[in-house]
Amino acid sequence: MQSTSRARTTVVVVLAASAIVSSFDARTIRAATGQPAASQASRAPRNVEEFDVLFQQVKNWGRWGPDDQLGAANLITTSARKRAAALAKDGLTVSLAHNPLVEKAEDNASPFEHTMNKGFTTDTYRVSYHGYAHSHIDALCHILYKDQTYNGYARAAVNTEKGCAKLGIENLKQGIVTRGILLDIPRLKGVPYLEPGTAVYQEDVEAWEKKAGVKVGPGDAVLLRTGRWARRDQLGPWPVGRNAAGFHASIATWMKARGVAFVGSDAASEVVPTLVEGVNLPVHTLLITGLGINILDNQDLERLSETAARLRRWEFMLTINPVPVTGGTGSPLNPLAVF
Predict the structure, then answer these.
(1) Is the pLDDT higher at 115 or at 20?
(2) Is residue 178 domain-resident?
């Protein structure tokens, strides 16, 4: 599906339509599957069966009514926006978007295209933004589990050749203003970046909270820095879709308990390989389809990390304003952190 908007600039976006927590822990998995509690190296969920147990435990289907289109964005109240606005003390803005990558690479199968039109006073953009290169946000219709989207809608009722009949990105047209919190795990561990394949667990996040003096709460957006772009600058691109640092799927329990509203990272938010045998994109599935949390992929968090470290402030006002394409599975994005 394509959406074309012409003014002084023509934008062509190729939409790649694709497809507390009370008791989920090792004891729940053991009771449900008969398997022993896992060590960190093989933590539940480890397979399809354990994944389904977790999905059923954390899902927010029906929490905000049978017709809900916003998911966890409902957690961002007027009071939450006001608290976020109060964090903009210095008026300092930091973009979280990486400049569009125009050259094909191991992590960029579909380069951003920028073509000047006749007369060179207008231009055309073309981008297939889903994947591991371009900064974007996923709509809640982007990921399905067992042929259902978030809130239990059937695939046929949502995903159509004309776009998403429900849960499209246009539902965020009014924009998001909330508290953002940077989870700078490389800084926690004293390294410039996490090596691909490094899993980030709940205890890592809580150790960072203690170090940074912040605590994630209802309505917050959490941004996981793995150092992906720093590593790319130093060593060059690599196939991020096959090998990346990120959250382990078990983080979904913590996300629900804390009331996280949005999640983002400098890659795709999840560790790859996933450590969940037989399940592709388990973190995306748990967050988007189960919890109704929109995900911000491929954000550039390097300048944010440097700014936060200089100011010694790891919380900020965050604005998220996607292009409101009706039925869109997501949108290219330039989020702003305001200190």
Answers:
(1) 115
(2) yes
Q: Which two tokens stand for residue 312?
A: 């010694």
Asked whether residue 3 is assigned to any structural domain, the reply reads no
**CATH of residue 150:** 3.50.30.50
Positions of E strands within 1-60:
2-6, 10-14
Give the C-alpha separation, 286 to 200, whole Å: 16
- Domain span at residue 163 reads 20-100+132-338
Number of domains in the chain: 1
> What residues contact 73, with CB distance under 8 A and at least 6 apart?
172, 176, 261, 262, 292, 294
Alpha-carbon distance of 284 to 265, in angstroms, equals: 12
CB 262 within 8 A of CB 238: no
Question: How confident is residue 320, by pLDDT bands cut at 50, 70 and 90?
Answer: very high
pLDDT at 197: 98
The structure's pTM equals 0.89
Helix/strand/coil for 235: helix
Q: Is 14 helix (H, G, I), strand (E, B) or coil?
A: strand
**Residues 6+ positions from 34 with CB-CB distance below 8 Å:** none
Q: Give per-residue pLDDT as tens, 276-312.
A: 999 999 999 999 999 999 999 999 999 999 999 999 9
SS3 190: coil
What is the pLDDT confidence band of residue 11, given thresholds at 50, 70 and 90? very low
In a domain, 126, yes or no: no
Per-residue pLDDT of 49-73, as tens digits, reads 999 999 999 999 999 999 999 999 9
